[in-house]
Amino acid sequence: MGSIRFDKVDKVFGPLTGGVKALDSIDLEIAEKEFVAIVGPSGCGKTTCLRMVAGFEAPSAGVVSVNGKKVTAPGPDRAVVFQQFALFPWKTVRENIDLGLRNKGLAKSERDERIASALRLMNLESHADAFPHQLSGGMQQRVAIARAYVLDPEVLLMDEPFGALDAQTRVVMQEELVRLARVNPRTVLFITHAVEEAVYLADRVAVMTRRPGRIKEILDIRSVREAENWDRHQKIEDVMDLESFVHLRTQIWKSLREEKGPLGV
Amino acid sequence: MMGRKGLASLTSVAAALLLWFVVTTLTGLVSPGRFPSPAEFWQSLVQIATRGYAGAPLLAHAVQSLKLVLLGFAVAVATGVPLGLWMGWSRRAEAAINPVFLLIRPIPPLAWIPLAILWLGLGDAAKIMVIWFAAFVPSVINAFAGVRAIDRPMIEAARMLGTPRWRLVREVIAPAASPMIFTGLRLSLQASWTTLVAAELVGALLGIGFVLNVAQQDIYPGMILVGMVTVGLLGWATTWLLAMAEQRALAWNMAARD
Amino acid sequence: MRDTPLSFAERIGWGALGLAVLLGTWTLLTASGLVPRPFLPTPLDVLDRMIELMSAPFAGATLPQHLASSFERYAYGVLLAALIGVPLGLLMGWFRWLDDIVTPLFDGLRFIAPIAWVPFAALWFGTGIGGPVLIIFAGAFPPCLINAYRGARFVEPRLIEAARMLGTGNLRIILEILLPAATPSIVAGLRVAAGLGWQSLVGAELIVAAAGVGFMMVQAQANVATPTVMAGMVAIGIVGMVIDVALRQGEAWLRRRRGLEA
What we know:
heterotrimer, A: alpha/beta, 6-stranded mixed beta sheet, 9 helices, C: mainly alpha, MetI-like fold
């Protein structure tokens, strides 16, 4: 359970006023428990892809489906982690994590149990009763991830989740996410503009073109990772030094650079 | 410990009181027919507090005014805030209601007083109606603006979590808009007092505005000042209560600001 | 928020529906006799009465004449508030000692609704023009003062340091640095003051005037002349709106000239 499929998906913004074509015939299949990252220049529509899986936006043509069922509305089977965290500032960490469970109509005892395990998973136990503004950015994003994970969703959608964090926190969160993906694998669609992050985290990386966004190529990272046994390294900087990593990163960079404008922007 | 600021305030207020004493009592620069001396003010206060004035003791007048303000304010908030939230949430509601608003809003609330008296007479109902009209607009506008200013991801996060409609309004929309809602409540409260005093000045049989009215006809400066001070104190007290309520309700937000 | 923005036609349609419901309910209420006509005239009755009042006097004057005397008081009151409030606010923004003296007194007085000045206003200045002017002043003064003060207080400190470094004196700093820097805030304050002043004018005229639209409405109320009361409300609304639109235009023009977004 938990496959995602884009079938010839177009997206046009403002169709009443002439319209801007943001996405052009996107075809992409993500298997169950697969981690796919989409990278691309800003404004290429990669976030729009995620928002369509989440059900926040509808395709102008084509079909986005999860488990073979067409996506029509947002729902807790497709949990989203937002770049801006989007925690509820008037709710404590516990209450933030609890909301989705209450919406599912679960009994108090089960909710408490699941919250406790989510807090443990994200190392948040000592902050359960803090308000979001009392936490650092990295901690807030842990809460957002816990809020998504606790729902036990089939699909996890992450929209540049570490984009608002400082460089050091970001590295910690990336390592954490890899740990999480090994312990508790999920289907993940991960949007980022950071190439290293994509190569480090994903099983496959899809590179998108400038607007109108198209999928230019898809690189298989997983086979390289397994062949070269990246997982024997604990730290991200050790992995990033590996020749196989550098090679993949350079390949994506070249592909992206062809997409930049004449001034390199 | 009192800071420099507190000391300066105290000095300033003390100096003003002294000046009042000097110009009215010591030098007689201002005649008692124009503005009361501190002694006259005190006598008037004692008179209305013990023997009563304008048909009732001060406490009864104050309670009457306070009651009407709180009732009118409550009705205005109970109707205005939900309407504002709805208009903020639904573009259709906004499109349908906004023109009606644009039509009615330029009419100052005080201009409704004659009509309210025509319809409902000099009793409580007319005053509550006028206060309602006056306090309604700031409540609606600020609740509306509060909803419109909510960050999109916040709503999307709630929808992604499968939050049902009512819970969304109660636990996400309303709290997210609450800082703006409280701004509206402050303005509404202020409008309530202004309107009540005006309405009681135009026609009433009890209340602080009525005291002012009778004192004006009696040319009784001491009692006029008592009435004004009472209005100021009541306004201050209700504003303070609202600020306390806001601080409690928005603890999460206050802390975020420092 | 939840909905996508409406198209122009949809906006017009929904807006027309809203207005139709309002006017329809109003007309139905009175035309059906549910509410007796003397208490709630139809919209057309009010319009008729307004046209009539253009030439026929009520309470001693025609509607335009009442409006003229209202407007005269209003202009004096607001002008006075601006002429005292703005300079005082600027000075308070610059001289800390003045701020310390005035602010506690001002904060104390602010809780007294402007309309509560009516008895003293009548006692001191009578019911002709002086009394109402004082009440309008009381309504319009706070925003003039507060906005000038804030504008001056929160001027970019670098500007002041630069002026100081050039050896600029107090008066020149106030006139050539604080005043221009605070102008957008002052203008915004004037707009608020104009609105509050208009409010206070109505209140004042209901209680202490012997002419003006408010006076006309009170007289009409005493005579159960509901159409005249409502005609007065409409006239007050229209004038208030015109004042607001004019000031908004002025403010937008000023912001454009300053290179700020409108």
